[in-house]
Amino acid sequence: MSRLGPFYVCLLFSVLCYSVESCVQRHVRAQVPETLQAGYAVSKVNLRGCGTRPLHLASSDPDFTIQTDGTILTVSITTVPDSGKSFWVLVQDQRGQKWKVDVNLAPIEQVSQKSSMTVLRRAKRRWSPLPFNIKENDKGPFPKDVELIASDSSANYSVYYTIDGPGVTTGLVGLFSVIQNTGLLRVHQPVDREQYPQFIFTAHAFDRYTNKETDLPLPITVNVVDENDNAPQFSSPLIFKVEEQSNPGTFVGQVNATDRDEPNTPHTTIRYSLLNGTDLFAINTLSGVITTITNTLDRETQDRYFVRVEIRDMNGAPDGLSNQGLASIFLTDINDNPPAFKEKVYKTQVQENQANVLVLRIPVDDKDLKGTQNWQAVYEITKGNETGNFWIKTDPATNDGLLYVTKPLDREKQELVMLEVMARNEAPLVRSSSSWKKVPVELTVTDMDEGPEFSVPILRLKVKENIANGTLIGTYTAADPETKSSNGIKYYKLTDPGSWINVMESTGELRTANIIDRESRFVSNDTYNITVKAVDASQKTGTGTVVILIEDVNDNIPLIPAPDRVVCSKDNQRGSTMVEAVDYDKSPYAGPFTFELGPGNDGKWKIKNPKPGTSVVLEQAEDLPNGLYKVPLIVKDLQGVGEEQIVNIQVCACVREGECAAQKISAKLGMWAVLIMLLALLLLLLLCLLFVLVCTTKGEKLRMTDDYDGTGGMLLKSNTEAPGEEVKDALLVMPGSGVDIVDGSKGAAALEQQTMLSAGGGAYGQQAIHGGSMYQTGTQGYMTNQSMFSSGQYGAGFYGTSSYNKFSDMSAMDTWRTNELYLDNKLAFFGEEEDGRYAADVLKPYGYEGVGSPAGSVGCCSVVSDQDTLDFLDSLGPKFRTLADVCMNKAERGQH
Hints:
Elements: H1 5-17, E1 27-32, E2 35-36, E3 41-44, E4 55-59, E5 64-66, E6 71-74, E7 78-79, E8 85-93, E9 98-107, H2 108-115, E10 132-135, E11 144-148, E12 159-164, E13 176-179, E14 184-187, E15 198-207, E16 218-225, E17 233-234, E18 239-243, E19 251-254, E20 257-258, E21 271-274, E22 281-283, E23 289-292, E24 304-312, E25 322-332, E26 340-341, E27 346-351, E28 357-362, E29 364-365, E30 377-383, E31 390-394, E32 401-405, E33 416-425, E34 437-446, E35 453-454, E36 458-464, E37 472-475, E38 478-479, E39 490-495, E40 501-503, E41 509-512, E42 527-535, E43 541-551, E44 564-568, E45 576-580, E46 594-597, E47 605-608, E48 615-620, E49 627-636, E50 642-652, E51 654-656, E52 659-660, H3 661-667, H4 671-695, H5 725-729, E53 754-757, E54 764-770, E55 773-777, H6 811-830, H7 881-886, H8 890-893
């Protein structure tokens, strides 16, 4: 005790000089027995206010020790004098802060006498042994004595002791035993504190003679005192990340470790240290936090560091247990490197008139992490693309720049194009002194044989509607872009919806071909568009558009679109109706209109409030009975142009306004009645169309040849030897015969033979009519110095030169006329010399068949102008006799 005196004095002095705010109470007072056994828990220092940091606890009295939880225990048997006993406890944390706690102990009897004036009696104390301690991993020898168990009843009885519970009869069975006569507790084997930190079992005292318990059972506590037998272990992966070029002191990560030994003791006080990498990183020895100590970490140079970390208990003392681990520190990327071009200048060629083609691939290098925004390049044309001819984008796979031509280039305007391209990243630059890079790009435009170009892409012309056909409205020409010449260029129309304009092939003149109508459906907003194509000698083409602005003329009068009106008759009230007019011209050739009644007005109707406008109200001038009234109304436009129109006004009793009662009744017929009427109307229309197709042909103006002098006729198919029904029922007319056409359906009065001489001269003949059929009799004549058809019009029904009879119901006649038209047109067409047509398909003589041929030449195109009769049919055999009989009259066949 004398050796420790100076130490405690110095310790007391340092505690008194160290004035900081205490995290524990300043005084601890306790009442204890006069004699304290070893391991007796005197009291406890409250350490709750000191946080979770490991604390170092020390007692100034060597007879007492203090555990890490603040419990004050006796080290050996200690006697507390009547005056009490005082000492102090020193509390120190890892940062060196210290606090002193005063401990005052007083005997229980003394306290009782001082605190009470009553008569004091010594109470019987129940046996209460203090907690016992054993060392873990004790090496023996075993069994080993621990402590004596004593009961207060041993003063009056001869007792023996037994124990049971954990460590005795359960759990680690047989660890403890007791000598019954003496109560000596013994341990029989080593114990691992980390597995069994404490044993609490029960002790019993029995009378030797009666075997009855002389005292109540008492819990016995045996604490296993910790030994530093466990090295600290890492409790989390040693993998950390930190940004490259981070500032010194940047947090990297925290190393976490645990120790299985008793908490809050030096055995579990861990110190952290780095065994390498100390020039780049540092670690807090108490918390295990790793930080950077430099800003030179470069991911592009080294993207990962391996640092060995050591953890040691006993607060890092050399004799402490330790462990080591390898920490991996990864550097994350920042955008500290801009994209770099591989060339100082890029050159390429592009052909003129090309669009949407790739002309250049521009590669770049970027040292940042591939696939991230720090690496992904974005390209921009900073110079030379003012006209918008180019476009650049990024190839996501290679990060190259792809330069495209989006609009065609013209070499005649620019042979060399200078661009400037800049490359940047999607992410901004961070902690870098560099800037975005730029590179020049030279594009040479190569020549290409181009088509003609019109003087202007869109030619606008003003033209008044209804101008005469053939009027020159403008000229639209093109030139070769290389030579600037228009020689050899031809012009054609591509689109002309109304066929209104002709384009002169060689000059490009634009002339009207049809009437230009501003009110046509082909006109939009008074404009009419056509497109023109120019073709040069090498068949290269160019197109242009002509926009014709049509100026209006007063070519439309005001019209009444709905002239049929209904006026409802009412008692003692005269009705009226509103009439509206429209004019398809525009101002000043349209409204407002003036309305006035025509000269034929009978005075039954009058105009109400006549004034210019687009409508007028007609009202009764007198009471009128129901019926239909026609009112002449003159409508004129702003220029005074108009005419009289008839307004049909139906005065009737109405079921509702504007609807006559009869109309209502007819409307009640129902849907089926309306459908039946529509079906009947449709059938009637189809029947009319059938008659038109069978009985008529389209009229057409024809140009006849002047030298036609042949005869004609029609052979109708018949399957009988004599003239068949088809021949008898149809009309057979020989052209040029000079006969009149007689309607055989008129009756029996017309069934007589007629002989007439053509007024044109040179043609004569006789006509016989039998039962509605007509045959030529007499000798077939010919016409001289006169056209076969004097009027030249087939469709109008003119035949011969002297007379005309309507014969609309003879299909044979119509068929003959149609065939005659087509044959004459074809002969006239092939008679022209253009393209050499006359040499292939015209009338030409053929060689004679030879002596003895009764038919002469039978070529299909033989000249037949010398044949005046049909006698040659007699030599063609019996099968052709029927044909001869058809063409002969009754007298010639001997039929009277």
